[in-house]
Amino acid sequence: MNTKKYKISDEDKNTLFERTNTKIGLYANYLIIFFIFLSIIVVFLDSIPSLNEKYLIYFFIIDFIISSIFLIEYFYRWIRSSHKKKFPFKILNIFDLLSFLPFFILVIIYGVGTYSIFVVFRIFRVFRIFELIKRINIIKNLLKSVYKHRIEYISGISVILIILIVSSTIVYFSEQKWGDASTFNTLPNTLRWAIVTMSTTGYGDMLPITSIGKIVASFLMFLGPVVIAIISSITVIIFLETSKIVQFSKRNNICKNCGSNNRDKAFYCSNCGEKLKNKIPKI
Q: For a disulfide at 175, which of 34, 114, 182, 212, Cβ 3.0-4.6 Å?
């Protein structure tokens, strides 16, 4: 019987942290996700001045432990990868490296005692959130669907940009006759106003005075909900597609060992002979 095989990279097969079809791999994956969220919480708490002054040393210790874990996990995946030369240059692996490397560089340069210098490290800790893309399957499937519909997104965004640029240019030149009294003093500032107006936010700091400016503003306010509806419809399609992918993976009898798709009522994999999730009836 011909079965459809789902491609699993050598890195996924050999790396403990990527192989979530085993208990130890699943628990290791959950542990990494826990440390990612803990790191993000620390970033937010560290930004509060009162907490930063009082618990700075504890934030440093937590950062040191988490960074050390990410360091070990990174090099473990690199050693087990079958494409060692390409591994450091993959975009998600670059984000992984940026999430812990600056911390150790600062420790080496300035020493452990100078805690205040680690405020520079804050921005790099945010990169740890990109680890979730690899850890949570629903996010990976969503990104794949977004990439599949990238032409629709690019087309929609291009139309929006054209409308914003044209409308902001018209308003800018129409408001110039008021001279210094006009708040539309530069094209970038006018473009910001057009974006705010189209999104129906309306800060009220910039108001067109001319009739042309008011007409364009009304047009943008009317067009805003229409544009949001179009982009939302594309997003809904992507979420539905992602949901189907998840349901398909749950419904089909996929072998955890080789990734082959088997009959729903099969007890052993037709490709490798591995025991499947279905219970064998007692005779």
A: 182
235 in the same domain as 180: yes
Element spanning 222, H or E: helix 211-251
* Sequence-ordered list of residues with C-beta below 8 angstroms from that of 237, at least 6 positions apart, any chain: 149
Q: What is the DSSP letter of 178?
A: G
What is the pTM assigned to this prediction?
0.54
246/137 Cα distance (integer angstroms): 9
* Residue 123 neighbours by CB distance under 10 Å: 11
DSSP secondary structure code for residue 267 in this structure: S
**Shared-domain flag, residues 169 and 107:** no
Q: Could you give the CA distance from residue 73 to residue 60 in angstroms, rounded to a whole number?
A: 20
The answer to whether 112 and 98 are in contact (CB under 8 A) is no
Residue 57 counted as domain residue: yes
Same-domain status, 111 and 176 = no
pLDDT digits (tens, 9 = 90+) for 183-221: 788 888 889 888 888 887 777 778 888 888 889 888 888
pLDDT in tens, 12-34: 444 555 555 566 767 777 888 88
Three-state DSSP state, 32:
helix
Read off the tokens for 171: 């308003």
- Tell me if 238 sits within 8 A of 145, measured CB to CB: yes
Do 123 and 15 fall within a single domain? yes
The number of beta carbons lying within 10 Å of the beta carbon of residue 89 is: 9
Residue at 5 is within a domain: no
